[in-house]
Amino acid sequence: MFGSWPILSTILFSPLLGIIALLLIPKHNGRALKTTAIVATLIPLVLAALLYADFQHDTADMQYKENANWIKVPLNKEIGDDLSSLKEFFYEFNYTLAIDGLSLPLVFLTALVTAMAAFASVHVKKRWKAFYIWFLLLEIGMFGVFMARDLFLFFLFFELTLIPMFFLIGIWGYMDRERAANKFLIYNGIGSAVMILAFFIIVNTAGFTMQTVGDATSFYYSGSLDVITKNLFADQASLIHAGPEMFPDNPFYLSETMKWTLFIMLLIAFGIKLPIFPFHTWMLKVHTEAHPAVVMIHSGILLKMGAYGLLTFGIMLFPVQAHAAAFAIAILGVINILYGAILALRQTDFKLILAYSSISHMGIVLLGLAAFNEIGLKGAIFQLVSHGLISALFFLLVGSLYERTETTEVRKLGGLSASLPFICGFLMLGGMASLGLPLLSGFISEFMAFLGLFETMPIVTVIGVLGIIFTAVYVLRGVMKISYGPIPEAYKGLRDARLVEAVPMITLTAFIVLIGIYPAVLSEPLQQTVSSIDEWIHNIVKMGG
User: In angstroms, rounded to a whole number, what is the distance separating the alpha carbons of residues 6 and 468?
Assistant: First the structure.
């Protein structure tokens, strides 16, 4: 369909059109600014949908690849004793984009949730122009994270998401918004520092390539995932695995200790983003203090960047270490599930219930990854997409409820289905999806993740399943208390959902139902990639890395 057209770059930078348009609109014209921002998010959504439809399901190869030399930084030159040879060393930064069956659904999820969050942002009451400019910059960063195939480019886009989120939380959040923004930046900044240190070590070892032209030889240190993977695992690289005894100057060699160190560093860096207990406290503040439209993106997409990075860089580059740590990863997943679920039972603020629910559901992703089999991995990816849709729907509803009642305290609400039947109906459906009701996306996601882990760790799986029981309790308690019972006098006669609210509610729900009743819409593009990843990891583990 796209031929040689750079569709990924088009999707990636299409929000810039919206930013340019916003800059031309007067800052006091809120209606025009909001309409422009919504339209600007619909453009990449349409393009992402076309990309999804055009994606080839019969291959595990990276598709729509774009590559260009970006920056070349010279390090030093060495001239041979006879002046007949020249060695030049460079750091090479490449603009490399591509997607596979793993990143494709996350690119579409990003486009969808961002567009729906733009609808939800109609509740924003101040500084509309600045809000939407930061909003669209955030979308560019998120697209880049899931498309980048170069470590430096990935890091650049990963960092690009931090700055807009900091301002979106700190300016347009609630009472304690500045503290929430600072906590967000500190925790994620620490994670980024650990990540870039790990990336530099990887680039300066496995990112090494050489090119000889005449008597001159150029040596490159690049962040290309293709180069790094080839150097770490290609059959012809017996030199790589020979160790320092046989080749002391081997630039590719990473000792087992260093491999374990790098894996743990990446687990921490992406575990903060996921978040994995005990690196979760920053997320609670964001969920409760940020504007609901911002939390839709944070919970629906940004948390998924942690899981995606852990799989793409932590597990794929260090599969032997990750496989050896499978039990520890599974235990961390169970802790997330039970800790999040039990704490959610104790909350009275519906936003905090949803925040702890996100921690619990991200634990299911860890269980799927720890299974190290095809069905578990597929369940983890299903869970990323499913939770992204469900959490986005929940916080969309939270924003609508807060606008009408000015509270999210469950004890102060009740009987709202009498005044808000449309909103409460979707609240109930979101609750059913969250607790894993069959024919909704939450069921198939959790089922595959737990089934995959049961093949390798049945006892851990049984303990983790307890979280589903707790989920049913806290979800039903919160949803039922808000929707039914006596309605406070102040909430009688409230206006139900407007069209601008109903459209994203219906859209997100449609995808939750679609994945639940027709999971092939997600599993078909995933299948070849997941099968290839599973086979590749097990082959590397059998060979001992």
Answer: 43
Residue at 421: amino acid letter: P
Question: What's the whole-model pTM score?
Answer: 0.94
**Residue 504: alpha-carbon gap to chain centroid:** 20
pLDDT over 70 percentage in the chain: 93
* Cα→Cα distances 545→132, 238, 323, Å: 47, 12, 11
**What single letter denotes the amino acid at residue 388?**
G
Who contacts 130 (Cβ-Cβ below 8 Å, separation ≥6)? 167, 171
Contact 252, 205 (CB under 8 A): yes
Residue 238's pLDDT is what? 41
CA dist 336 and 435 (Å) reads 16
The CA distance from 237 to 254, in Å, is 13
Nearest C-alpha neighbor of 425 from the set 365, 491, 501, 312: 501
CA separation for the pair 358, 298 (Å, rounded): 11
pLDDT tier at 234 (50, 70, 90 boundaries)? low
In residues, how long is the chain? 545
Name the burial class of residue 90, with classes exposed (0-12), middle (13-18) and buried (19+) by CB atoms within 10 angstroms of its CB: middle
Q: In 3D, which of 410, 398, 391, 379 has the Cα closest to residue 508?
A: 391
